[in-house]
Amino acid sequence: MKKIIVFILFLSSLLVTTSCDKDFDVINQDPNNPTKIESGLLIADAVRNTGNLLYSTFVGGDMGSCWSQQWAKVQYNAEAMYTPRESVIGFVWDGLYEDLASDANVMYKLAVEEENTNMQAVALTLKAYAFSILTDLYGDIPFTEAVSAEDGIFKPVYDTQETVYNGILAMLDEANGLYSADGGEINAISDLIYGGDYTKWQKFTNTLKFRVLMRMSAKADVSAQLTEVLSRPVFTSIGDEAKLPYLTSYPNANPIFESIVYGVREEFKVSDVLVDMLKANNDPRLSVYAQPNADGEYRGKPAGIFNVPNDDYNYNNVSPIGERFLQPDFPGYFLSYSEFMFLKAEAAVKGYISGDANSFYQAGYIASMTENGVEGYGIPSLSASTDAALEEIGNQKWLALFCQGVEAWTEWRRTGYPTLSPAIDGVIDEIPSRYTYPATEQTLNAANYQAAVANQGADLLTTKLWWNN
After folding, report:
1. Does residue 276 lie within any of the structural domains?
2. pLDDT tens figures, 277-321
3. What phi, psi does 372 have (nearest 5°)?
4. The total number of structural domains that make up the chain
């Protein structure tokens, strides 16, 4: 009898144990901490971190709007005189690699597992955007071996800018071919740019390719590719723009607001180049781009100048940046419709594409006026002279890119418009052509860093990039 009782107890314990083990891995999963994330949920952080970086006054302000001479400063003027902070140089490099390129890489792999081709296309577009900004800032960069730590690559080689550009174009072509109505859902809540609309993302992908092709147009015959891109879905209105909406309060507001208004960094003002150009053309955007100074006048400041504030240029007698651009919910632009139309106008003037350059030019001008809430303006026409037309396009694109500091400086480097003089008390006698590499690359990736410098040229602010050499 005792043996029977023991045997029954053994069977009971076995049943209990088996029952407890059944679906153990499912029961013990924390729904609030999933082991695998949906690819679409990564969009928000990647996009927001990138917008915050590009629109930071330390980056887009000091080393963008000041270097393109849309802005000027009446104090703390070192960056405007071409002495950037090493910490900011590293912040940009790390941010674009870690917060955008790497996250986009993870996003793509997850989307492949999900068989979601629309999300694969979004990931490729964001990755291409990351590398386009990186190479336009630094030149030769890690690309083919970048964001490959999972493969054991911790010291990636640097690729030439030409190689990077060709790789970016290939990414964007692949992305364009992946979009489809049945290609999978894009998380509408996480997608801060387009709210899950894959057709808008496809337009961004192809319009970005047009920008990239124009950037390299001095170094390669891009006519056929530009024409082919225009046969795809591209921006057709302001409603297609790639821009990040910000919220109305800290810490989710536009970084320009958070620094200048919330952080009371009122040393950021408008430049004399900007004010003089707007005044000369009786441009109604003057009252939008700038605020009157203490005397009720619109007055800018020249670039640089070591000893400020002084009697000539100070907090009171130089115009602040316009109120529109200091709003907490002013969007962060990744690519605007007006920029695209000015690029098309330039391409048409140069004979790269067919079409009426003047119509493209006027569409870009009208788009800028519309976005700035201006009414009752005249619409200019392009000059018949090619050189004059290119200058007019370049100047108007520069104006349309106001407060898009990095892009304004990059396009100035490419086109040379408007005509600018170096900072008055600059530590170098020319406007910078690039950012220097982060100091960490010289120590953690020394051999590849040295090879890049040997190929591209000295690691200086004045070394020209491939597309601008």
Report:
1. no
2. 999 999 999 999 999 999 999 999 999 999 999 999 999 999 999
3. -90, 5
4. 1
